[in-house]
Amino acid sequence: MVKSFLKEIDFTKKDLLNLLALSAKFKQLKKDKVAHKYLEGKNIALIFEKTSTRTRSAFTVAGQDLGMNVTYLGAGEIQLGKKESIVDTAKVLGSMFDGIEYRGFKQEDVEILSKYSGVPVWNGLTDTWHPTQMIADFLTLTEVFGSLDDLSIAYIGDGRNNMANSLLVTSAILGVNCTIIAPKSLQPQKDIVDLAHQHNTGASLTITDDIAGVKGVNMIYTDVWVSMGEGVDFKERIDLLLPYQINQNLISLTGNPDVIVMHCLPAFHDLNTEIGKDIYEKYGYSELEITDEVFQKYSSIIFQEAENRMHSIKAIMYNSFQEE
Ligand code: CP
């Protein structure tokens, strides 16, 4: 059976815990400079229909560390979806490559790619889920807190995006208490909440528009306020989400001096980006989903989380090629 990694709900708590343990092992091998070219001779393709720094770099380095040949197929460089259907592309790529990473828009597309390629397919982000990010995030939580037992996390901001969806269902599967805090119009869709409840192994799951929901949590998470490819009025979105910014006041509301902050990145916390400057010139905001003060305070954890993308993606790919 082909072992793809398409969405979190395809996996049990035991599966995800195994991936976290395997990620930690690969991280240690890398730190000890022990070669681990366990997949030498395999060829993988990385399809990116959206831009990426972390996911692309993580798949590239992880693949090379495992001894694989890695080919990048960027947006507009292949026929996919324009001159050729996803089904036909899947059959062609599956006949040449041993595995395929796909970052795109519709979840359905990555599922089709997996069904028709006959090789493992790894979801590098769709509009619905960001599953490889989850292994890195829960690895980071395990490293910081020693275990996932009795942890409570809160995601605050746009509660309908792929990150909120993935955090909600992954927390449910792993039994980590999770609160999604978002304005009513940006709360998770009912089918996502239903999935989280169906796969829940004992977590408390809460959806609220009240920022007081951060009280007592161990970790607060946020993501950008407008996701890739979303055609929305930026000013309207900023006005709606400004009360949900991670700032010092929100940190104080947790009442927990040991709370940490995580962010999947990229983040709009200063004016050192083109988009950040553009928003500042148009609307006067120099920081969006997280203030620079908070970002800098928790930056060592946020960049530890980014590094963990590579170790966890290595574990995910390696696991796909192991017999049951
Ligand atoms: N977190 C994340 O997916 O980063 P990239 O968009 O840079 O891959």
From TrEMBL:
It is found in: Cytoplasm. GO terms for molecular function: ornithine carbamoyltransferase activity. It comes from the Bacteria. Residues 150-318 form the Aspartate/ornithine carbamoyltransferase Asp/Orn-binding domain. Residues 3-143 form the Aspartate/ornithine carbamoyltransferase carbamoyl-P binding domain. It catalyses: carbamoyl phosphate + L-ornithine = L-citrulline + phosphate + H(+). The keyword Transferase applies. Its main location: cytoplasm. Keywords: Cytoplasm, Transferase. It is an enzyme of class 2 (transferase). The keyword Transferase applies. Its EC number is 2.1.3.3. Carbamoyl phosphate binds at residues 52-55, 79, 103, 130-133, 264-265, 309. InterPro entries: Asp/Orn_carbamoyltranf_P-bd (IPR006132), Asp/Orn_carbamoylTrfase (IPR006130), Asp/Orn_carbamoylTrfase_sf (IPR036901), Asp_carbamoyltransf_Asp/Orn-bd (IPR006131), Orn/put_carbamltrans (IPR002292), OTCase_ArgI (IPR024904). Gene3D superfamilies: Aspartate/ornithine carbamoyltransferase (3.40.50.1370). L-ornithine binds at residues 162, 223, 227-228. Belongs to the aspartate/ornithine carbamoyltransferase superfamily. OTCase family. Reversibly catalyzes the transfer of the carbamoyl group from carbamoyl phosphate (CP) to the N(epsilon) atom of ornithine (ORN) to produce L-citrulline. This is Ornithine carbamoyltransferase. It comes from Streptococcus dentapri.
